[in-house]
Amino acid sequence: PKPGECSRNYLLAPSKSGCVSDQDCPGDHKCCVFDCEDVCKPPAFNKPGVCPDTTGQLGYCAFLCFDDRDCSDELKCCRNGCGGYNCMLPFKVKPGHCPPPQGPAPCAEECSHDSQCPGDQKCCQTVCGHACHELV
Predict the structure, then answer these.
(1) Phi, psi at 96, each rounded to 5°
(2) What are the structural domains, with CATH classification, of the chain?
(3) Contact 127/105 with Cβ under 8 angstroms?
(4) Contact 115, 122 (CB under 8 A)
(5) Which residues form the WAP domain (predicted)?
């Protein structure tokens, strides 16, 4: 498959109908389900950062954006807790990679995103939770 995700934007016109895989589509277009048919469409536009977790929160049950290109500045198009999407300030993702989870570790959620960790540390998965770790 080609990189990226299918856009939720139904206003983007398909470039081709009847695809089976991304390889059937021109350029960077992807094979996506659209109006009960497989069609080639441009991929969703993604800005850097991670959307906040909105599980259990309330939001507008409407699509106020379709992908990040609909949002100003550094805002991203994120799930809002009600099944809709709206523009939100993302969490920054620090560069580097987490070490693989190993050994006994406290089963706790000490962090949920990199910006909760000091300095260059990242929020990494442990054996049963998440904690701030030095980079590998």
Answers:
(1) 105, 175
(2) 1-44 (4.10.75.10), 46-90 (4.10.75.10), 92-136 (4.10.75.10)
(3) yes
(4) no
(5) 1-44, 91-136
CA 80-85-90 angle, 5° bins: 70
Tell me the pTM.
0.66
CB 130 within 8 A of CB 124: yes
Q: Are 114 and 92 in contact (CB under 8 A)?
A: yes
Give yes or no for a contact between 68 and 45, defined as CB atoms under 8 angstroms apart.
yes
CA neighbor of 53 nearest in space, from 90, 96, 104, 108:
90
C-alpha–C-alpha distance, residues 68 and 48, integer Å: 10
Q: One-letter amino acid identity for 4?
A: G
pLDDT of residue 105: 66
Q: Which of 101, 66, 62 is nearest to 84 (CA)?
A: 62
